Amino acid sequence: MDHVLKSFARVGLVAVTAGALAGLGLVGTGASASTAGQVTEFSNGITAGSYPRDLAVGADGNLWFTADHGPQIGRITPAGVVTEFSAGLTGSGHHGIAAGPDGNVWFTGYDGTIGRITVAGQVTLFSNGITGGGLFDIAAGPDGNMWFIEYAGHKIGRITPQGVVTEFSAGLTANAGPHSIAAGPDGNLWFTEYDANKIGRITPQGVVT
User: Fold this and answer.
1) Which one of 45, 50, 57, 203 is least enclosed by Cβ atoms within 10 Å?
2) Which SS3 state, helix, strand or coil, does residue 8 take?
3) Can you say how many angstroms the Cα of residue 75 is from the centroid of all Cα atoms in its chain?
4) 52-57, long-range: CB within 8 Å, 24+ apart, which pairs?
5) Which has the minimum average pLDDT: 31-35, 83-87, 194-198?
6) Alpha-carbon distance 48 to 172, whole Å?
7) Which whole number is the average pLDDT over 48-77?
8) Measured between alpha carbons, how far is 187 from 127 in angstroms, rounded to an integer?
9) DSSP tag of 24
10) Verdict on whether the full-model pTM lies above 0.90
């Protein structure tokens, strides 16, 4: 399942190998399909020019996605039914998205905000304590918090389910442009330094290697 969803994130809202996904309930109807029957694409309900960016599985069993060029967060069911939410959102440039330990979905805004959206579509934005801009990826940590990347600020951020932010920069390469982050099997978070050509590891206490 995980490798399937990773493929989704790479190619947008495209179901890969429909025959293999049928058993997972991820193949929808009413969508355009290739003649070989291996790819199903969904576009109905997605605002034109919004540039869907990242993708995550929510606690409701649906897929949630960000829009790079639009003030909306999208939800798509396994059958391909899309709902977009914009109430409570400001600006555009929503990048990373991930399911949180609180049953909500969390996402980043390039403008320096972290958003939380319930499965019913209610949005809460957090910005206090975020000093850098260019927020990219976000991931659930083993400590019950969400961890995020400040690409332009060259920092790693941690936000609690209540919205309390802590930033970490000690140990990161200067001007490295951290980009992606994920929880590792060792109880730490792992991240990329895009401009420094490095991989970083950060403990839940903020110690970077």
Assistant:
1) 45
2) helix
3) 12
4) 52/12, 52/13, 53/94, 53/95, 53/97, 54/9, 54/95, 54/96, 54/97, 54/107, 54/137, 55/5, 55/8, 55/9, 55/13, 55/97, 56/5, 56/97, 56/98, 56/99, 56/105, 57/5, 57/99
5) 31-35
6) 38
7) 95
8) 27
9) G
10) no
Residue corresponding to tokens 């009413």: 30
Confidence of residue 32 (pLDDT cuts 50, 70, 90): low
Q: Mean pLDDT score of the chain, rounded to an integer?
A: 87
- Cross-strand bridge partners of residue 55: 65
Determine contact, residues 41/32, Cβ cutoff 8 Å.
yes
> Closest Cα to residue 179, out of 134, 117, 113?
134
Q: What's the pLDDT score for residue 91?
A: 79
| CA angle centred on 64, ends 63 and 67, rounded to 5° | 140
Task: Give the residue among 12, 23, 21, 18 at the shortest CA–CA distance from 33.
Answer: 18
Residue 24 above 80 pLDDT? no
Q: Would you say 108 and 138 are in contact if contact means Cβ atoms under 8 Å apart?
A: yes
